[in-house]
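Wed. Picked up where I left off yesterday with Transcriptional regulator. The coffee machine is broken again, so keeping this brief.
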Amino acid sequence: MSQEMEIVNKLMSSIGSGKYNAHDRLPSENEIADQYNVPRITARKAYERLEELGYIYKKHGKGSYVKDRYQQIELVLTGDVSFSQKMTEKGYNFQSKTIFCKEIKYNEKIYNYLETAKEDKIFKVGRLRYIDHQPIALHISYVAKSVFHDIDEVGKDITSMFQYYHSKGYTEFISKPSILSVSFPTESQRKLFNCPFLIPLLVLESGCMDKETGKVLEYLKIYYRSDCFSYVIQ
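Structure written out below (tokens, as returned):
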């Protein structure tokens, strides 16, 4: 194990055990360098890794402090209420921006999920979600043109898919089984989220169905910044 990772692991353990509480000031880089008998650059890199992982934050000219990980947004992972509604009801300064709406090439998995024919056209609509102007989640909805005939025309103006579904006469929803996984952000995702490489993304794959008819409305893939949320699975 490298000296840098040894320092990272020791400090993570100290934070996890309660030795350091939220907003406590951590030892300076010089103090860490002396304690572990390493160059100061090694201590600095260790703190940079901890900041990327969401354990600490820095105050310019004052040092490094423990991040309050309990101030993360509590998110109930259900598909019957929109993300926009969940955030608005919690009182957050929430915004949603549609960043693309475009037709996809044939993808067997997505077409099968949507229970649609190969000749159908599938569009993906991407919305970037913000809390206090910070991008925290990317929602990508895949929908069939045979179900939503104007999706290619209005897709770029949709900020809430649930509101769009309501406008089409679908009022109650149920979720299809969900899959959770973890990935690290690609270069394009890092730019979207304005986040470093080491912060993992929680990836949720699910779908939305009309409760009354059982019709599949969308295949949904969501990327959440893992350092911004705590998750409740019902």
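Quick read: The CA atoms of residues 110 and 219 lie 7 Å apart.
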